[in-house]
Amino acid sequence: MARTIANDKTRELQRTLYRAAKADPKRRFHALFDKVHRRDVLERAWDEVRANRGAAGVDRQTIADVEEYGVAKLLSELERDLRDGSYRTLPARRVFIPKPGRPTEQRPLSIPAVRDRIVQAAVKTVIEPIFEADFAECSFGFRPRRSAHDALQVLVDEAWKGKRWVAETDIASCYEEIPHDRLMAAIEERICDRKLLKLLRAMLRAGVMQDGAVTRSVAGTPQGGVVSPVLCNVYLHRLDRQWKAHGRGVLVRYADDLLAICSSRREAQAALEALRAILGELGLRPKEPKTRIVELRDGGEGFIFLGFEHRLATARGRRGGQIEFLVRYPSPEAMRRARRRVSEITARKRLLLPVEQIVQELNLFLRGWSGYFRYGSSSRAFHQLMTHTYDRLCMFVAKRHKRGRPYARWLFARGLRRRVGLFDLHDGRVIAPRANKPWRAKPNAAR
Fold first, then answer.
1. Which of 208, 242, 247, 212 is nearest to 228 (CA)?
2. What is the dihedral of CA 22, 26, 30, 33, to 10 degrees?
3. For residue range 87-115, what is the model confidence (pLDDT) as tens digits?
């Protein structure tokens, strides 16, 4: 009950800040730092950090260690350190993870200490509603009550209106190249609390530790920090503002992944030139291998955005004649990653694990994967992944019994899926996108 009341107080604080920022777009907030170390804000920050789990930072302290040490005790220490100015941010632990679909390339990931993640979450709780009041409609990534499917719906609606040209690009190393001085200038447009600004600068300058050495830079909001997505959106909001004055077509931006859907090739070329110019002014650059212009036409090439492949299709209308509309389905890369994940779960090296545990892990993955990709024309992809999953599970059980593929086929025919409780992708409806309709609308596609 006490924690619920604290969360209600935090939500009321956020609503108050949002309404104040929305009412006066030029207002600069000067009394925010005391909100960061409020006990209810820190408690909510801890709830978010615990829910996200995550690895330990440079101090090697895990979530379990914090719970053993005492959550209330740690929050009291953070509250005291923030209030008296003795709080110090530790460097983040630098690790490298393979990029999805490109195992030879690695993405730098910075893992702050648990205590620093709590403070970052508290800062995010306080500053996010202020900047949310300013963010443009074209921005969808890492924002409350906005999702990737909202961005995808814009593409369906604009294609229905007749736009057939897409200028797409990514921002190269966006999180690593945002200049600190320009980012702080963007923050100071809305915040003038000196203590909070000092804390934000300390977070940016904390640096990263790799192989025992700490490096600090004058650019970047390390990817992996709790507050980094908000800071990235604050800085890229300058791109969104300049687009209103200099852009062409309809911009759709999901964090550092963006495209403009246009009415003609000339407009698409102008949009791409505008994006290059605006990014250059911000000290950023487009990722050239992913920068291109695509014409949408029936039977032509499509484009990949937010895990889906998008193509133009034609069908007979209710009153006769042909209608054109945008369809989407899981991209080839998304399918490869899904099959790879299923193969990892059912790998030979895991034969000693109980079948129930394997099925539980498969169900967890399949439910999450289908929950995202069911909003598209994904029936065929679902069938392919379900067949692959069932085949891998049958072979896994056969190997546990030291039997071969014929035994696996026998298990398949005997209905192993129902006996072990494997989630079936065919049990959920696929919801095909429709123009000018909410994407959460009643299912309108076959199973």
1. 208
2. 50
3. 999 999 998 887 766 666 777 889 999 99
| Better pLDDT: 271 or 434 | 271
Q: In which order are the strands placed within the sheet that holds 102-111?
A: 102-111, 92-99, 208-210, 213-215
Query: Is residue 351 within 8 Å of residue 398, measured between CB atoms?
Result: no
Residue whose tokens read 């945008």:
326
Q: 374: helix, coil or strand?
A: coil
Report the alpha-carbon distance of residue 82 to residue 76 in Å, rounded.
Answer: 10
- Round to the nearest angstrom and report the end-to-end CA distance of the chain: 42
Which DSSP helix (H) or strand (E) runs through 329? Answer: strand 322-330
pTM of the model as a whole? 0.90
Task: Say whether 310 sits in a helix, a strand or coil.
Answer: strand
Which has the closest alpha carbon to 385: 372, 361, 405, 369? 369
Report the SS3 class of residue 304: strand
In the numeric block, the tokens 């690790």 are attached to 95
What residues have CB less than 8 Å from 297, skipping those under 6 apart?
A: 164, 312
Judge residue 299's burial from the number of C-beta atoms within 10 Å of its C-beta, 0-12 exposed, 13-18 middle, 19 or more buried. exposed
Handedness of CA 115, 121, 122, 127 (dihedral sign): positive
Give me the helices (H) in 90-165, please. 114-132, 148-160
Please give the angle made by the CA atoms of 178, 179 and 185, to the nearest 5 degrees: 110
Query: Measured on CA atoms in the order 89, 93, 99, 102, is the torsion positive or negative?
Result: positive
Per the structure block, which two tokens stand in for 439?
């994407």
Q: Which residues of 432-444 are buried (b: 16+ CB within 10 A; e: fewer)?
A: bbbeeeeeeeeee
